[in-house]
Amino acid sequence: MPKVTIDDRTIEVHAGTTVIQAAEQLGIFIPHYCYHPGLSIAGSCRMCLVEIEKNPKLQIACYTMVTDGMVVRTTTPAVTIARAAILEFLLANHPLDCPVCDQAGECKLQEFYMRFGRYDSTLLEDKLKKHKAIPIGPHIILDSERCILCSRCTRFVDEVTKTHELAIFNRGSHAELLPVRDAVVDNPYSGCLADVCPVGALTDRDFRFQVRVWYLEKTESICHGCARGCNIEIHTNRRRTHHNNGRLIARFKPRHNADVNGYWICDAGRYSYKGLESDDRLLSPAARGQAGLSWTDALAQVDEQVTSAIAAHGVGSVAVIATPSLSNEEIWALRRLFREGMKVDAIAHLCPPDPNGVTDDLLRQADTFPNSFGASVIIPGSPPAVESVLSSAADGRIKTLFVIGSGLAERIASERLKEALSRVELAIAIQTHHSVVTEAATFAMPMTTYAECTGTVTNSAGRVQRFWSAMPPLGDSRPLLDILADLAARWEVPSAPRDPQSCFAELAGCVEYYAGLTYATLGSIGVNPRQMAVPSA
Amino acid sequence: MLKLVTKNIGVENSHTLAVAREHGAYSRTAKALAMSPDDLVQEVIQSNLRGLGGAGFPAGRKWSFLPKDSPKPRYLVVNGDEGEPGTCKDKYIMIHDPHLLLEGIIIACWAIRSHKAFIYIRGEYDLPITRMEAAIAEAKAAGILGEKVMGHDFALDVVVHRGAGAYICGEETALLESLEGKRGWPRLKPPFPAVEGYMRCPTIVNNVETLSYVPFVVEMGGPAFAALGCERNGGLRMHTVSGRVNRPGVYELPVGTSLREIIYTHAGGIVGGRALKAVIPGGSSSPVLTADEIDVPMDFDSLAKIGSMAGSAGIIVFDETVSMVEALQVLIRFYAHESCGQCTPCREGTAWLEKIVTRILDQGGQPGDADNMLRIARNIMGNTICPLGDAAALPVISFVTKFRSEFEVWINKGRPVASIPLRPTHIGEPAMAS
Question: What is the pTM assigned to this prediction?
Answer without folding.
Answer: 0.94
